[in-house]
Write a structure and sequence with these properties.
The chain has about 160 residues and is α+β, with helices and mostly antiparallel strands. The chain contains 3 helices and 7 strands, in the order βαβββαβαββ. It has a 7-stranded mixed beta sheet, with helices on both faces. The longest helix has 15 residues. The protein is globular and about 45 Å long. The chain starts with a strand and ends with a strand. The model has no long low-confidence stretch (mean pLDDT about 90).
Length: about 160
């Protein structure tokens, strides 16, 4: 299935904010989220930071043809002990799942951001863990480590050279 992954412009911020409502709805199976008085989930904290210069945050839009199919938020984490890329949020609309778009998008993100990666999932989010283990295993040819830390499964690997 043909898709495009593009770095989200400032004009795309509202689209990601709107798609975030569906993402949070899906994610509410795994964490305690309730809608606010207006019937919407609270705004995603720090979403605006993805459009600030020099912040090591990368927002992406996924399209299937001319239709929105999802989004991904990637961060580059810097610490005293290590630097790595991380998928902050990853969402494909249900209509487009199970046809390879999510897998292809994830692998393209890994190729776009060369270096060390950590991808994490809530311990109780078994579908996400199965998805990411499968994708990362394929992408890294089995060369990844997994650990359980603070209620999250974390997969560590290095992006491949193409």
């Amino acid at each position: 299935m043909k898709f495009t992954l593009t770095l989200a412009s400032l004009q795309d911020k509202n689209v990601i904010s709107n798609l975030m409502q569906f993402y949070i709805y899906d994610f509410s199976d795994f964490i305690e989220f309730d809608v606010e008085e207006d019937g919407l989930f609270a705004a995603y904290p720090g979403l605006e930071d993805y459009w600030k210069d020099g912040n090591d945050r990368f927002p992406y839009i996924v399209r299937q043809g001319d239709k929105y199919a999802g989004f991904a938020l990637v961060r580059f984490i810097r610490s005293k002990t290590e630097n790595f890329f991380s998928i902050a949020e990853f969402f494909i609309l249900k209509k487009y799942r199970r046809n390879g778009i999510g897998s292809a998008v994830a692998k393209q993100l890994f190729d776009l951001h060369k270096g060390q990666w950590e991808v994490h999932q809530k311990e109780n989010n078994k579908p996400a863990r199965l998805f990411w283990n499968k994708i990362i295993n394929e992408y890294a040819s089995g060369q990844f480590k997994e650990r359980l830390e603070n209620g999250r499964w974390i997969q560590d690997f290095t992006s491949r050279d193409n």
